[in-house]
Amino acid sequence: MPADERFAVRRESARASVPRPLTAAPAPAGVPLPPGLALRGRLATGARRPEAPRGSGRGGPGSRTPRTGRGGGPRRAYERARRAWDRPLTAYYVILGSSLLITVLGLVMVYSASMIKALDISKPATYFFGKQFLAAVIGGGLMLIAARMPVKLHRGLAYPILMVTVFLMVLVQVPGIGMSVNGNQNWLYLGGPFQLQPSEFGKLALILWGADLLARKQDKRLLTQWKHMLVPLVPVAFMLLGLIMLGGDMGTAIILTAILFGLLWLAGAPTRLFAGVLGFAVVIGFVLIRTSPNRMSRLACMGVSEPDPEGGCWQAAHGIYALASGGWFGSGLGASVEKWGQLPEPHTDFIFAITGEELGLAGTLSVLALFAALGYAGIRVAGRTEDPFVRYAAGGVTTWITAQAVINIGAVLGLLPIAGVPLPLFSYGGSALLPTMFAVGLMIAFAREDPAAKAALAMRKPGVRWKTMRRRVKKRSSGER
Q1: How does pLDDT run across 273-290, given as a tens digit for each residue?
Q2: pLDDT tens-digit profile of 366-403?
Q3: Count of CB atoms situated within 10 Å of the CB of 81
Q4: Is-contact 280 222, C-beta < 8 A?
Q5: What is the dihedral of CA 45, 49, 51, 56, to 10 degrees?
Q6: 366 near 104, Cβ under 8 Å?
Q7: Which of 129, 342, 387, 461 has the fewest CB atoms within 10 Å of its CB?
Q8: Residue 108's Cα: distance from chain center in Å?
Q9: Which residues are CB-contacts of 209 (< 8 A; sequence separation ≥ 6)?
């Protein structure tokens, strides 16, 4: 047999010896095949499995996911920070966290700065701290109530708060009822060691009433006319300013003026109208300062580095001394030297100087960062809402807290005249702390009213999350492994 024929016979016999895969017999019509048998039938008939794309297997480039962990440089860190700030609940948590941190740190510094003053007047070392702690507890309750109140109820309280505040401010000027503290007739005696300064509540009253007024006029499209923008907002504000100035409190009058300008700016006042009101206020302020030797002496103490030989600018100079001796990290909590009678009002107007002396530059920058975060969150709430009342009220509260902090800290640094206003949420003073904490609760309520924030808060409730998880889990059949 030729070689070619022998090779062909061997090839055919080798093919015949290879076992062929089992094939499924054709099933009768209407009878489905079992899954395993059908799969073997498809494989036996040569049906190919779909090929995976190249590089999608283990170790291939298609299986790699972008890294979100460490590294990435400053650009990646910036993108993460930006995404974090854009979350719906950012303003809510920033307002709540920064305000509570400022209040707690203020309680610590009030205790440290006031203990020598309390002992000097034959009181326990915790005298001022105890009163401030009680005010903080009451203010925390007010903040919680304000945060849980709906916006409609806040608008409903605008007129009652304004009328009660005006009534109390009139009572202050009645002889025998009002009290004078440090030359200012702005206090009411409540019995025991407690006093009340109604002008502090005037800031909150002006914000709520002014926001409600401007919101109603905006709904009626009346803010395009200057007379509707000014009347009755400006006359009522001037009435409050007049009652405050009767008591001689120039600092509170400046804060109230800043709130008025903030509301006008948010309402879209034209430049000419805004400049006119500002010019009128500057002229009145100049006359009031020029006609008062006390205010002129405070104005002359701007930028001084040492007191006069006759004792002038003593408080301003020693405030600079306290800040300068603090260094980077301060002399330690409770180790201030200036609070031992050298610096007047160490626990009220100049508590920031004691903070710089005991906690150093790190402590003062931390306080500034907290106020900056609170102001940014307030601007965010005012800028993202569609409700005009929320926009005006949140903007007014932000203007109030920011302007008062700038005036207080600027006076301690010698950049501004000493206005005699406390540092919000930080300085000693229950009359200033209560309305401020209520205003913070107001902003928290506004932050919660955002639709995206509402949805995020609803998802954080245990019942909602459990129901959502139950929807996502697919039910398996009893025979599926």
Answers
A1: 888 888 888 888 888 888
A2: 999 999 999 999 999 999 899 999 999 999 999 999 99
A3: 10
A4: no
A5: -150
A6: no
A7: 461
A8: 21
A9: 158, 159, 161, 162, 236
